[in-house]
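Contributing new records

If you add data, match the layout below exactly. Sequence lines come first and carry their own label; structure lines follow with theirs. Keep one chain per record. Anything else will be rejected by the validation script.
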Amino acid sequence: MVRPLRLDPDRLFPVEADPRAIARRLFALVEALPIISPHGHTDPAWFAYDAPFHDAPSLLVQPDHYVLRVLFSQGVPLEALGVAPLSGGHAVAAPREAWRTFAHHYSLFRGTPSRLWLDHTFASVFGLDVRLDDETADHYFDAIGEALARPAFRPRALFDRFAIEALATTEGALDSLEAHEAIASSGWSGRVIPTFRPDDVTDPGGQGFADNLARLGTLTGEDTQSWPGYLAALKARRARFRALGATATDHGPPSARTANLTSHAAEALFGRVKGGRGSAEDGDLFRAQMLTEMARMSAEDGLVMQLHPGSWRNHNAALFARFGRDKGADIPQTTTFVDGLKPLLDAVGDAPGLRLIVFTLDESAYARELAPLAGHYPALRLGPPWWFHDSPEGMIRYRRWTTETAGFYNTVGFNDDTRAFFSVPARHDVARRVDCAFLAELVSSGRLEEDEAAELIVDLTYHLPKAAYRL
């Protein structure tokens, strides 16, 4: 039986009549506001060259680690979804068969944020009006394929249709930035900017660290075998990113540990790790020191510094060896910030040029550590609920646990943090609705006037992310 696909216009709003009516009025103020997407992982080549997207699974399944992790957890082989092992030479499902497999297991997403995002995409972007299942799988595959062949579904046309005002991608320190250069020289008016992610040259435990240092030296003309030359090379790359519109950096270490060594001690530490002679503790200390060095550079050049520790990357070693990264096997772990960030904050926490946005995968740190820190240090802002927590429940928990200590104005609005471009409007829709629901609760319980909530929802949706990321 074919079942209808319907988006409830009051989804995620309160059940009670009075707060629901308030949420509706608030949402009307922001539903059509432009999207500010200051942190994400979409491919800048899409916008540089504006080529058509290929097919439904390569667009909506294979790049989305949220989708892959759910299916893998239920025993679906990634090959059955069209994901090829790194070694090659293995049969993988053709696009239509991969989509049929996805459709067959679509019920696994009931109650998850992925279901909200996907149904919104199917209905609002592609105009589909029946639910995805075995019976409708081919209809979906054909309808999406036909749509993607039309000019209206090219990346730049969708960028305009989604009302995106600014979109930041994320590139490593060694990235050629060719796609961003192509965007800059194309004459296209869309604002797609890079974000500087230097983990490949600041983490001695990363793959190919010594080779990466050599490549950094070649890119910049600096002596990256010396401590002063290495720092100069990082400053040069930051300047190149800034020239192409970057307003932020991004750092994803295992922990929030920072350090503030003397110049002599830092130089000695660099000497050990660059040649592979350092211990595991040396590697951890070097990552900690480099966070403080990056903060110093941000205080000087104005790039907003984003820090998101706490993910055990590629926890499934066998899956990582077979398929590589970003296949849904990154797992949250306990993270502490009060002690970890103290050396950095002692060094530059009061610097007027520094803006440090901190994210966490450890929700227990919201009320205990991060909200109090953000509620004190002028440089520090609390990033939105992220990754495992950008769900309706996660967003509500975030507001409940942070507002009383950090307020609203020490937070930075929402970012979608996605590789799945077609889900960008859906993710922002969810965030706007949840914030409307939370504010409606404050109004209906007498803790906020509705005119204040009306100002707040516009700030949370639009003004705060623009200001926080200096866009």
